[in-house]
Amino acid sequence: MSELSNQNEMHQVPFRGGGFAPTARRGVGLAVFLLLIALTELGTQTGFITPLTLPKPSDVLKTFGELYSSGLLWQHLSVSLSRLLVGASLGASVGIAVGVMIGLFSYVRAGLLPLVAALFPIPKIALLPLFVIWFGIDEGSKYALIAFGTFTPTVVATYGAVDNVDRGLIRMGQSFNLSWWSIVRKIVLPGAMPGILSGLRISLAIAIILLVAAEMLGAEYGIGAYILEAGSLYDLERLFVGVAILSILGVTLSACIGMIERRLLRWRV
């Protein structure tokens, strides 16, 4: 009997029901990033990459330190973050609400879906002069541009996520005599949450792009204004510092969405 149990232990089949779940590989992304920086530094030091093409990463880091020590880093970053927070929060919240209503109500879908389809392909940056005319060259036009640019992709992602909720689960809830609101709250919204959060990743990336465009017009402070000034002076070190700040901002927002996903989507296996 013991020999049979030992043989079973030796021939155990590993679990293969992960459902293609991604496995976390810590440090790989950071290693790739550091490798690219090292190769760029080597190329600029040896002259293989000319200074007119790319600056030395060490010089960019030195310029970043000077920006930080001068206090201008927080001055530019705080202004940009406040604009991004107000504009993206307004656009995303309204976009989620409209997207859910389009997904749930037939009359709202019939009335608003053609309008959203017409607004979605419009380049939002092209509307910046119009927003300046409507809201002035100050903060109002920047908030409006970021909000509008965040609104349309959020609507599309949200109603698409609501449409993709398993109808079998909804019918099951109806068979148990759940109320309409209970079905929406317990089945539709949790089932649509993965698609909504994926749409928010795209919407926030678009919001950062529009933030830079808005700050390049009539803004004294902000990352976009800093990049515009550096570009006009052909100061590549400062230009790449601004680009690096935007990249860090994008990675941070993506990490925040990831934390929200882990908290709200614990039910997924």
**Overall 3D geometry?**
globular
Helix content: over 70%
Number of strands: 0
Largest sheet: none
Q: Report mean pLDDT, rounded to a whole number.
A: 85
For CATH, the homologous superfamily is named as: MetI-like
Along the chain, the helix and strand elements come as: HHHHHHHHHHH
Would you give the CATH topology? MetI-like fold
Unreliable sequence segments = none
Number of domains: 1
The CATH first-level class comes to: Mainly Alpha
Using only CA atoms, what is the Rg? 25 Å
CATH architecture: Orthogonal Bundle
What's the total helix number? 11
Task: Report how far the terminal alpha carbons are from each other.
Answer: 37 Å
* Strand composition percent: under 5%
Structural class: mainly alpha
Break the fold down into its secondary structure elements and pairings.
Layout lengths: L1 H9 L17 H19 L10 H14 L1 H33 L1 H14 L8 H8 L3 H25 L3 H9 L4 H36 L7 H10 L3 H29 L5
Q: Describe it for me?
A:
The chain is an all-alpha fold and 269 residues long. It has one domain (68-264): Orthogonal Bundle (MetI-like fold). It has helices spanning 2-10, 28-46, 57-70, 72-104, 106-119, 128-135, 139-163, 167-175, 180-215, 223-232, 236-264.
Summarize the structure.
The longest helix is centred in the last third of the chain and has 36 residues, at 180-215. This protein has helices at 2-10, 28-46, 57-70, 72-104, 106-119, 128-135, 139-163, 167-175, 180-215, 223-232, 236-264. The protein contains 11 helices and no strands.
Keywords:
77% helix, mainly alpha, globular, single chain, 269 residues, MetI-like fold
